[in-house]
Amino acid sequence: xxxxxxxxxxxxxxxxxxxxxxxxxxxxxxxxxxxxxxxxxxxxxxxxxxxxxxxxxxxxxxxxxxxxxxxxxxxxxxxxxxxxxxxxxxxxxxxxxxxxxxxxxxxxxxxxxxxxxxxxxxxxxxxxxxxxxxxxxxxxxxxxxxxxxxxxxxxxxxxxxxxxxxxxxxxxxxxxxxxxxxxxxxxxxxxxxxxxxxxxxxxxxxxxxxxxxxxxxxxxxxxxxxxxxxxxxxxxxxxxxxxxxxxxxxxxxxxxxxxxxxxxxxxxxxxxxxxxxxxxxxxxxxxxxxxxxxxxxxxxxxxxxxxxxx
Length: 310
Hints:
3 domains; Immunoglobulin-like; disordered C terminus; alpha+beta; elongated; 5 helices
């Protein structure tokens, strides 16, 4: 369901894959050694599919059961590289543990290894969750008392698989997180669903949602977008890059700061007006694409970037 958290869990899986051997089987050479508990990563979502990631050698078959013996086979899949990600569309339900086996080629199935299901955390509190709506620019969602290192994820209220935006509390203590959604992402919506994503324990888990109404729009660019425009005018690439990060502009890399400054300045000159959030993101994306393909970047004069809804 949640691609972002699934990718995080998969990245963690790949990090341990090279350093987490299976448990040794001293007596039966025909049986596959059981996987180490720490090679198994759990992703438990409040709703939708859940996932089990297992680090293992290519060619192995992974099976997930709901009991230490007997029980039901929940999922099975083959390992094509260093691990497998198995989806449980029905979710974990009331399970407190799952039980994982490996079967290597020409060997019998291993013993089952228990792995605790990651606990669903409490969700955001309505009183701590606010929004501001800037017409033609962004909806600004602010959540206070966010747990340490937790993500704040904003999903489409009628399709939780559609992640609209995400931010994170990067502090070791609870704090405030603000997430910015270009208004073209919320066209036709009256509210948003907000939840936490938490890493820890045996993997990752997502919280229940809080519903957040989108307020009446203000006919202005948001303060954070105005700040980016101010920094573009001032002309300091480092300050502009920092402002891009503060505004939640995705994939704004420090090594391209000068190129961002040039592209954004050209776009401002060409448009003769301040740039909105979507236009700024479009310029940053263009810089990244050009730099990736050619190792340098130049924006054609007269190109202000794609407008919202364009």
